[in-house]
Write a structure and sequence with these properties.
Elements lengths: L1 H18 L5 E11 L9 E9 L7 E10 L2 E2 L7 E9 L2 E8 L6 E16 L6 E14 L5 E9 L12 E2 L2 E2 L17
Antiparallel strand pairs: 1-2, 1-9, 2-3, 3-4, 3-5, 5-6, 6-7, 7-8, 8-9, 10-11
Amino acid sequence: ISVAFTALSLAFTGWLQYEKFRLDGEWQIDTCTEQADFKRYEGLHLAWRVFLSDDPLSAPVVGDGEKTEEAFAPIPASARFPVRLVGTKEINSVSLTGRFDGAKRASTGRFELHPTLSKRLLSGYIPFYQRNVDVLDGTFAFTAGNARGTARAVRLTDGEEPEGVAPFACGGMTATSTPPVDETTEDETGG
């Protein structure tokens, strides 16, 4: 009986390790506001560049970064504000809560994301494989304007998105279809 229990325990542990995925690395998180208390926020695209770190044994996910885009246009370095994220990952989901600093105030928010694309990589936990998730889709909710809508996180390699990932769309626009904006525009969202 103890041999069977040990074998079952090893198989279950191996399955859990197989199902875990790593979030370590650089990510681009895009949001599209679908509902908000302020109409000017609806249809607004925001993006952050963050560095996430996690432990394969389910320790909290943590990350730091900054807001880099608004309405698909780059934000000048002087107008970029930091974000700090902390959260958890489950077998098929990631929850991140963050503090978003802004020019006038700070706000908080939450991302609920789920893996979409994966590829198997041989890890240090031989003979098990782990998923390396490149794209997470889901939703967000922020205290700034009570904004909520769709979100997507894409793992970056050398600052670039993986090949074959469709551009993020918001209000019928994407990064490739948006005209450049004046870099002197002040940040209205506060985060």
